[in-house]
Amino acid sequence: MNVILGISAFYHDSAATILVDGKILAAAQEERFTRIKHDYSYPFNAIEFVLDYSNLKLSDIDQIIFFEKPFLKFERLLETYVAFAPRGFKSFCKAMPIWLRDKLFQKKMLFNELKRHDEKFTDDNKIFFSDHHLSHAASAFFPSPFEEAIVLTADGVGEWATTTVAIGSGNNLDIKKEIHFPHSLGLLYSTFTYYAGFKVNSGEYKLMGLAPYGTPKYENLIKNELIDIKEDGTFRLNQSYFNYATGLTMTNQKFHNLFGQKPRNSKKDEIKQFHMDIAASIQKVTEDIMIKLARSLKNEFKISNLCLAGGVALNCVANGKILKENIFDNIWVQPAAGDAGGSLGAALALWHIEQKKPRKVCLDDDMNGSFLGPEYTQEKIEEELNKLGAIFSTMKEGELIQKTAEELSKEKIIGWFQGRMEFGPRALGNRSILGDPRSSTMQKNLNLKIKYRESFRPFAPSILKNDLTEWFDLNVESPYMLMVANLNSKKITKMSNDEEKLFGIDKLNIKRSEIPAVTHVDYSSRIQTVKKKTNNRYFKLINEFKSITGCPVIVNTSFNVRGEPIVNSPMDAFNCFMGTELDILVIGNCFLDKKVQNKNLIKNYLKEFELD
């Protein structure tokens, strides 16, 4: 038996993964344990979990691999500061002590941290380092259902690379092309995230959700001034407008002058039509680049499958546009496409590329639905709920499914906690908040009363795979909620002439389909397809809801509030339940009604987590 531990850490979304004989056994993000969103610290708790789940001690591990190479990253920082000198001296002074103290000698630091798990771990020769974008590419290709594929990765920056193209075949993965820092599509998008007043490496989802409320009126300005896009999709950024290479902010005064405004202050400034138009513009530019890249790669390499990873691959709108263009026969996106997935990719790269182990392709994929995290027995759930003072009834599965579906059909909002936690940023039906998509007030209520977040943000539909084409303009599976498509035209509600004239956020409360809670203002949805094989209990719930209502769709959003990581434990779930206006909590076979809970257990949850 060969066991590999993969680790990603020290930038954002630290995580750990364990492979046993090349099989993905367990993976989790550190944030779920520490309750610190996007936690970048050494993933002590995540490593403890994957070891415990595998019934292994650290001294049993054959190889440990970190997802990037610190020396190459340090080289990039030094060369960047030299190239831009004397600009960036303040940033240089801030970064260097941390690098010289901690990051540069990361093998020693990792060894010392690893010994905390097991005092018998004494062999630092077991520690290896992967390349950042190779880790991303490996996470995209090796678990995919393809024998051969083009692999496109794009994010902020790894060591030097910001975008890479690789060819995967069998157990081989060969990087063919790279775009290097400071030219980065991920950093360009993050610049506009910052400019619109959202947090970098966290608020990119918000920018994407805001885009349909605007028009891309600044598209040409971006293309003419900020970025030179070639016909094949490669690009260069005009660094005179940016501050991220050497500064402590993303933009500079020249950038602000170009668009006529300073960055929005999220604490003081409202979101205006300008910010919606800015969001629409950078989203359109991003989509154009990704489509150009995809088309040129298909023409060059003549391979019909595409795999995607890196933070930009979480832009599900762009993914949906690539799909709609019919450039490739098949597209597969790694569900943990960001840095957390680097822990998985590094381990897979070591197994297949370095150790030359054969690969067996799975027709669905090798991610187990991305349900790779902790799970709790019914006994443990009841024990924890009793300790917390919860009032609950325990039901058999059939009764539980029927009762939950009935409550959903009455527009109750339900916390749903089942099985193993998801790996990656999406809740896929095991750590989810569920609602009735037919309700015209559900989106508003979920955003303001449950999630405590901006009213414009859309929600995703979970739909039974067999009903997909009747409701959406999509004919391929989207199990990881990483594809956006439009509603089927026969499900759309036409807007009146007066409604058509509305602008921006005024469009929000217009009913535009039979399932308004999951229909964005541009008639699109971020779709999750559900099938029995992958998530049987969730499938049964949606099927029962369909039996009651005739609708095979339910609202699915992550079980957390704004600024909080997705819930991990029964205690996390109960705290969120008692701190929000959730009506029902279903956890394992336990059914909890808010109305009968002890009022003294109600929490002030709004200030519990730092806003993102």
What is the topological layout?
Blueprint: E1 3-8, E2 15-20, E3 23-29, H1 31-34, H2 44-53, E4 63-66, H3 70-84, H4 89-103, H5 106-114, E5 127-129, H6 132-141, E6 148-154, E7 161-169, E8 172-180, H7 185-195, H8 204-210, H9 219-226, E9 227-229, E10 235-237, H10 253-259, H11 273-301, E11 305-309, H12 316-324, E12 330-333, H13 340-354, H14 378-388, E13 393-394, H15 397-409, E14 414-417, E15 431-435, H16 442-450, E16 460-464, H17 468-471, E17 483-486, H18 497-500, E18 524-530, H19 536-549, E19 553-558, H20 570-579, E20 584-587, E21 590-593
What are the key terms here?
612 residues; alpha/beta; Nucleotidyltransferase, domain 5; DHBP synthase; 21 strands
Structure in words:
It is a single chain. The chain is α/β, with parallel strands linked by helices and 612 residues long. The chain has 3 domains: 3-141 and 336-370, ATPase, nucleotide binding domain (Nucleotidyltransferase, domain 5); 179-333, Nucleotidyltransferase, domain 5 (2-Layer Sandwich); 378-607, DHBP synthase, CATH 3.90.870. 35% of the residues lie in helices and 17% in strands. It contains 20 helices and 21 strands. A 9-stranded mixed β-sheet has the order 13-21-20-14-15-19-16-18-17, sandwiched between helices. Strand 1 (3-8) and strand 2 form a beta hairpin. The longest helix is centred in the middle third of the chain and has 29 residues, at 273-301. It is globular and about 60 Å long.
